[in-house]
């Protein structure tokens, strides 16, 4: 059974401007601008009240079409949070015998991991998009992946994790690797960057 009309209205936060063109969404805020294509979602996006609200509508939608409304709403909310507070993933290096040697290069966009399980191979991970990786000033063997796009930040953290996976050994015994320990915002409620006052 089709629903004639289903809709969801989102309020745009202060200091954020939204622009929609052919189902391409542009969100601009204090931390920068994000662009996302929602052409795969069969919905109409309309700006209301001079851009202070966003309305998502699906006409004649089946159950799966109606589910895309909340998907699009989540995309908008994540973009709003990204341009206001940003995203930060904390990763911790774990090792039993061979200490991991982590080097950051190319303007905080490339991470090099050496001596994983004593191997000579250098593992290089390049951050996606505008994400950057930093070393924690207060905690040993702790990395921070920071950016405005939650997809780029989370995928970059996942790439770091999967480059240091133990192969052909009992993973209950060999726990070496780099693991995501926490997910926070890049800026706290007081407007202070997490990279400046970080405690894992």
Automatic annotation (TrEMBL):
GO terms for molecular function: rRNA binding; structural constituent of ribosome. This is 60S ribosomal protein L9. Keywords: Ribonucleoprotein, Ribosomal protein. Pfam families: Ribosomal_L6. Belongs to the universal ribosomal protein uL6 family. One of its GO terms (biological process) is cytoplasmic translation. Residues 12-86, 98-177 form the Large ribosomal subunit protein uL6 alpha-beta domain. GO terms for cellular component: cytosolic large ribosomal subunit.
